[in-house]
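One-letter codes give the sequence; the integers encode the fold. A sample entry reads:
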Amino acid sequence: MNWISEWALPKIKTLFGGPREVPDNLWHKCPACEQMIFHRDLERALHVCPHCGHHLRIGAKQRLDITFDPGWQRIELPKAPMDPLRFRDQRRYADRLKEAQARAGQEDAVMVAHGAIEGHRAVIAAFEFSFLGGSMGAGVGEALVTAAKLAVLQDAPLIVFTASGGARMQEGAISLMQMPRTVIATRMVKEAGLPFIVVLCDPTTGGVTASFAMLGDLQLAEPGALIGFAGARVIEQTVREKLPEGFQRAEYLLEHGILDMVVRRSEMRATLARLIGLLRMPEAAAEVAEGEPVPALPPPAPAGAQA
């Protein structure tokens, strides 16, 4: 040992504060093109890959942040029964639920809030896919019923952003009961004469697709979103045919009439505001229709005449 290692190096380390800890989440890899994206660039692009346009999954709170005007308010949801079947596989369902709640910072897989979208009042229910795969149990059913009641109370449209793997298997038949329950919730909104808009995000599958997610007055989706009931492999094994390219993707469903629009995330907020404005102001739509000439119908053919 000499004076450099014993005296000089410790002084230099003290002077410059030693090595800095570098966060391990500064870069993200796009799952589609596998390009590395700096986290700030990804946030500015609303978690859309700047290289290939792939829409990465985002959480419920971030979804509300980029859709609502500033000042939106989250709704406290009624508590659903926790682990009603006392389910256990490799771990207790109650433990999985507590862990998911601590990680996501919410009680269940749906967050409900109200606010304005470019000045238009709205109620939004957003799914959190990282919460047990956005699966639909009693808590999700309670959240959607609460969102529907709030929309009726506030005389505001209801918008649901779906991202779910389907019914929650740990709640058995109770999770399946949420399918008709959420359908009834959508009927409450429609019977009040309010718009019900569904935005299908990646992925939307299983019991969510088979219930309220396909009952919107308008069906929107993000580009490339996986939307379906059963998985493609299960379908191929059942029908014993090769499925077409892009099957169950948003663009395929739009082409075959299942969706009304496929909207990029950067345009979603403005698109929703425009749609709400059109649906909530029928007199404006009537004025536009009245300004267009209506072709006259031909006179009816005399009796006995051939067409």
Q: What stands out?
A: The two ends are 110 Å apart (CA to CA). Residues 172-191 form the longest helix (20 residues).
